[in-house]
Specification:
six-stranded parallel beta sheet, binds zinc ion, 26% strand, Rossmann fold, 18 strands, 13 helices, alpha/beta, 2 domains, ADH-like_C, Quinone Oxidoreductase, Chain A, domain 1
């Protein structure tokens, strides 16, 4: 099969990879219908995360080709979506709704690499969810978004307790930030403030439900949020970038007793303890337990209540993956969909 291998930082190749096979009785083999490039794939691309001939990709939708002897909830021919973290969905942590921290958790990015024609998905019963049937072609991008960016944005909005009567501020206008805006709207937030200075992304933020745009960053950005909320700060803040400035901007924009959901992968962030202490806020974040939200998200997409597929603003065949990485790295594209 063909698949993406990153040889080193900035060095993306589409090469022949060995076809995956069933190894454990709980595995499934899927044939990908579509896959995509994630903002977090840019960390190894930029040399921030180690990379050496690594199979890439962790978002996926496709059709089950083969299942192991113990797989019960999906069968060959099913159209399925899975989370970017493998989970058994039965352990105590999974049952508490934190499947990304499952005792059997594995990152699809590190072990599988779904920017490929096929993938072996371990713990298929606990990881994959079948759709009610084969989707219309125009629903495929939306379903693919549920695999990570929509699920992650939704988790962030949920962690920030976005809901009726709440003012939600979203730091970050990448795909996850935009999906957090959509989630906040669906969860009934009264006011949604997008922090963005990119005109095209501001437009998309408004499409997904932003009521206000704040272009200022850092201390000025915090001051603007305070101005817009009678000095209080937002009830709910989503951090979807993962830099020092964006993280502290999110902390500062959250009102005392408010909730912050942080889902930006934050390699170099140092959180000053004393600032966090005096902020007096709730914090919840980390890799999103997408599996918790998948059935509900699939339902909303299937019924065409939500349209997360618009975050894909570049579509390329798998063989042109290198250009997809380049476009995202240069911020010419929000998110690249790869067709097979
Ligand atoms: Zn588990």
């Amino acid at each position: 099969m063909r698949g993406v291998i990153m040889y080193g930082p900035g060095d993306v190749h589409v090469v022949d990879r060995e076809d995956p096979k069933i190894i454990e009785p709980t595995d499934a083999i899927i044939r990908l219908t579509a896959t995509c490039i994630c903002g977090s794939d840019l960390w190894p691309y930029r040399g921030i995360e180690p990379v050496d001939h690594t199979p890439m990709g962790h978002e996926y939708v496709g059709v089950v080709e083969e299942i192991g002897a113990d797989v019960k909830t999906v069968k060959p021919g099913d159209f399925v979506i899975g989370s970017f973290v493998i989970s058994d969905n039965t352990c105590e942590i999974c049952r508490a709704g934190f499947q990304s921290k499952c005792i059997h958790a594995e990152f699809v990015a590190q072990t599988v690499g779904t920017q490929a024609e096929k993938a072996r998905i371990p713990h298929a019963d606990g990881t994959l969810v079948a759709t009610p049937g084969h989707p219309d072609e125009d629903l495929v991008p939306a379903l693919l978004a549920a695999s990570d960016v929509l699920g992650t944005g939704w988790y962030a909005a949920d962690a920030a307790q976005a809901g009726p009567g709440k003012t939600v501020a979203v730091v970050g206008d990448g795909a996850v930030g935009l999906m957090a805006i959509l989630a906040a709207r669906e969860l009934g937030a009264e006011r949604i403030i997008a922090m963005s200075r990119h005109p095209e992304r501001q437009k998309l933020a408004r499409y997904y439900g932003a009521t206000d745009i704040v272009e200022e960053r850092g201390e000025e950005g915090i001051a603007r949020i305070r101005d817009l909320t009678d000095g209080y700060g937002a009830h709910s803040v989503v951090e979807a970038v993962g830099t020092q400035e964006s993280f502290m901007q999110a902390v500062g924009a959250t009102r005392g007793g408010g909730h912050m959901g942080y889902v930006g992968v934050n390699y170099d962030v140092q959180i000053p303890g004393i600032q966090l202490f005096f902020a007096g806020i709730h914090l919840l974040g980390g890799p999103a337990p997408v599996r918790r939200f998948l059935p509900d998200l699939i339902d909303r997409i299937w019924n065409r209540t939500i349209d997360p597929g618009r975050v894909f603003d570049l579509t390329l065949p798998l063989d042109q993956a290198a250009e997809g990485y380049k476009a995202m790295n240069e911020r010419r594209a929000i998110k690249t969909l790869l067709t097979l």
